[in-house]
Amino acid sequence: EGINIPSELPIMLLMGVITFGITLTSTTSSAISLEGKKFWNVKSLPISHNSVFKSKILLEALMGTIFGLIGVILGFILFKINIITILLISILTVLLAIHNGVLGLIINLLFPKMEGDLPIRAIKQSMSVFVSMLASFAITIILIALGVLIYRYTELINLVVIGLIGTILIILITEVLILKYRGKKWYININ
């Protein structure tokens, strides 16, 4: 009989590559730790913790979105994806990039490495980077499994993307609420 390969396979592979590319490269997982022993300077400025959080998340979201949208454009060109699917994947890309920034920041606030003598140690030898990579990898695997499951039962790629958008929105809202209600305390307690 042979193997029946769905015509949407390139789209699903593209979404997998974009998801892995965005979620496994978090700058916010070490953004606070990179301040090191001079973190007190940041805390003494007349800038709210929310402004610090937003700036770090915005940088992460911008970089992740650019990477993701380059992949979306290449997918559009190479795989002749329809415009509705492109728009849905673009929305997913932006949400993933924001999620990645918020998740990395939460983890860095929980596991800051402030005593490093070299900035590279905040990146290469910190618990926050390791935990962030593990969490991102787990979420990515869950999203891919969910996408495959939705496709298996519906065979509608747009429904798959909508399901992933809904899932990442739930995760993102949860992360934002955690950051809003717990982030300030974690931020203030960093020495």
List keywords for this structure.
single chain, 191 residues, mainly alpha
Furnish the topology, listing elements before pairings.
Layout: H1 9-23, H2 39-44, H3 49-79, H4 83-110, H5 119-124, H6 127-154, H7 157-189
Helix pairs in contact: 1-3, 1-4, 1-6, 3-4, 4-6, 4-7, 6-7
**How far is the first residue's CA from the last residue's CA?**
65 Å
Order of helices and strands: HHHHHHH
Note the total helix count: 7
Coarse morphology? elongated
Please outline the major beta sheet. Answer: none
What is the helix content?
Answer: over 70%
Give me the secondary-structure category. Answer: mainly alpha
Radius of gyration: 18 Å
- Give unreliable regions as ranges: none
Quick one: how many beta strands? 0
Mean pLDDT: 84
**Into which percentage range does the β-strand content fall?**
under 5%
Task: Give an overview of the whole structure.
The chain has 191 residues and is mainly alpha-helical. Helix content is 77%, strand content 0%. The radius of gyration is 18 Å and the shape is elongated.
Compact description:
The protein is mainly alpha-helical and 191 residues long. It has seven helices and no strands.
